[in-house]
Amino acid sequence: MQFKGAFTALVTPFKDGQIDEEAYRELIEWQIEEGIDGLVPCGTTGESATLSHEEHKQVVKICVEQARGRVPVLAGAGSNSTREAIDLTRYAREAGADGALLITPYYNKPTPEGIIAHFKAIAQEVSIPMVVYNVPSRTSLNVLPPTVARLFKEIPDVVGIKEATGNLKQVSEVIEECGPDFIVLSGDDFTVLPLLSVGGHGVISVVSNIVPRKVSQLCKAFFENDLKTAQKLHYELSPLSRAMFLETNPIPVKTALSLMGKIKLELRLPLVPMLSSNEDRLRDILKKNGLISG
Question: Does 107 participate in catalysis according to the annotation?
């Protein structure tokens, strides 16, 4: 089970409107040095919505190259267009990614039958481990447990789900219907420990962009039955996780990384810099946690 533990939903650094390859490679290297369990390029946090297809492929390629097999790479490859999702998934496999993270079609709002057909069409064209990304707050579509169970049972390449509903009842029902071999990853930094407690396998995290070691240690502590340490880390991480959502993700996390000297702060429209009042709050939280000085 290679998709287990803490995976970072990587930001995409930009410089003068282009991908900042040097900063991106350095960020990936730091993540691995800090003990992260896996990497996710081109997710929501990576501003995939405003990457061209060529940029998207470049980001995946850089990530796979820099990781060099030291940790698994789960490449974002989803789209609300099945054709585009097939193209991006095919490239993820060709680039050497270990799996593809596939968001459910947004805006279209397909029926459960449409969701099944979408993933079947991708799997028919490309054989690669697939993790479904369920994030109703972004897609206006919630993939319910019976549909998840059908995806798992009818499509061998579907190996797991990133659950970003924050609904532990739903997560529990997914595990109940799919069994322990189905990989369930939290897509919500606030619910990592509770999700692990009902049988989940890890997290695709935003806050691990800035504290990869702590998020990885939380997962490891739980898997080693050290619940006291896992709880301690859960509460230590909570203020930082809240700070990552002072405004729309990834605005705060890119701001934090820039304050930490890891990347240049550059967002793509329609995302804009934080309000100064929110940035002040973010600075205070980073200082309290020893991530910046002064």
Answer: no
pLDDT tens-digit series, residues 46-91: 999 999 999 999 999 999 999 999 999 999 999 999 999 999 999 9
Q: Is 133 a catalytic residue?
A: yes
All structural domains of the chain with their residue ranges: 5-224
Pick from 109, 97, 113, 168: nearest CA to 136: 109
Candidates 3.20.20.70, 2.40.128.120, 1.10.260.40, 3.20.20.140; CATH matching 5-224: 3.20.20.70
| CA distances from residue 37 to 12, 72, 79, 138, 225 in whole angstroms, order as listed | 19, 7, 25, 26, 18
For residue 249, give both structure tokens.
Answer: 């993700």
Residue 131 has pLDDT above 80, yes or no: yes
Asked whether the predicted pLDDT for residue 186 surpasses 90, the reply is yes
**pLDDT band of 2, cuts 50, 70, 90:** confident
**What is the arithmetic mean of pLDDT over 160-180?**
96
Active-site residue (options: 24, 57, 91, 133):
133
162, 228, 235, 262: the catalytic one is 162
Dist. CA 294–CA 138, nearest whole Å: 36
CA distance 212 to 41: 15
Tell me what pLDDT residue 1 has.
62
Q: Where are the alpha helices (DSSP H) in 109-226?
A: 112-125, 136-139, 145-154, 168-178, 192-197, 212-223
Counting Cα atoms < 13 Å in the Cβ hemisphere of 28 gives: 28
